Amino acid sequence: MDSHNTLPIKKLLVAEDNESNFLLVMAILKKEYQIIHAVDGVETLQKYRQYSPDAILMDLKMPNMDGLEATREIRKLNTYIPIIIVSAFAFDSDKQEANEAGCTDYLTKPIDSRLLKETLKKYLS
């Protein structure tokens, strides 16, 4: 048996209210990560507490509680978990707001699968 294959699979919480966007992320990452899905910021907080994921991919525009608010709430509980914003909004003002809320990094949609994987590896290795 290969001893270096015993690393536990990293858990990734994906906060995304758009089903097709979520399915795309799932297709890109499901071989390497255990994916937990949340459809809004409120559910993101619940599932963060429930599953203690290793990292979070956070959409900005979601119903009930947006990604910035959810990021701020999670930062009150955990200052070091990687929170990577994935958003269609690429304005500097959006990135600035996300940084102030406490996000670790910022990727723009449409998502680049290679960049997504590299970004996660950077924070999770």
UniProtKB/TrEMBL annotation:
UniProt xrefs under SMART domains: REC
Keywords: Phosphoprotein, Two-component regulatory system
Modified residues (4-aspartylphosphate): 59
GO biological process, one term: phosphorelay signal transduction system
Domain of life the protein comes from: Bacteria
Presence of the UniProt keyword Phosphoprotein in the record: yes
Ranges where the Response regulatory domain occurs: 11-124
PANTHER family for this protein: HYBRID SIGNAL TRANSDUCTION HISTIDINE KINASE J (PTHR45339)
Protein's UniProt name: Response regulator
